[in-house]
Design a protein that fits this description.
Strand order of the largest sheet: 1-2-3
CATH superfamily: HUPs
CATH topology: Rossmann fold
Radius of gyration: 18 Å
Number of strands: 3
Largest sheet: 3 strands, parallel
Strand content: 5-15%
Distance between the termini: 51 Å
Order of helices and strands: HHEHEHE
CATH architecture: 3-Layer(aba) Sandwich
Oligomer: single chain
CATH class: Alpha Beta
Structural class: mainly alpha
Shape: flat
Length: 105
């Protein structure tokens, strides 16, 4: 497809708007998370060491802990022995550097 055709397809066929940015999407996700998870709730999140759960934990942490007490969110990483060599330690180090309240079992 020619560039002008993809623009036409996105805007007029799919109904997308031209103002999308990653920053806006992240803010929408943060707002949604804060609305769903009320201030009186404690969140437990399991982090298996994979990219998806690690990124999810980091984003969740960022959304909920901007002004809240860090004791609300508890991240748990279970080192089950099935990750690649030293991968569990790398995951733990990376997440702790982000300030997550991470417990390793």
């Amino acid at each position: 497809m020619k560039p002008h055709m993809t623009y036409y397809f996105r805007l007029y066929i799919c109904g997308l708007q031209g103002g999308f940015t990653l920053e806006k999407r992240e803010q929408q996700c943060n707002d949604y998370t804060r609305r769903i998870v009320r201030r009186d709730k404690i969140v437990v999140m399991l982090v298996n060491g994979g990219v998806d759960s690690a990124v999810c934990a980091a984003l969740f942490h960022k959304a909920l802990l901007q002004s809240d007490d860090s004791s609300r969110v508890h991240d748990i990483h279970i080192d089950n022995g099935f990750l690649r060599k030293d991968e569990s330690e790398q995951v733990v180090t990376s997440l702790q550097q982000l300030g997550l309240n991470l417990r390793v079992i």
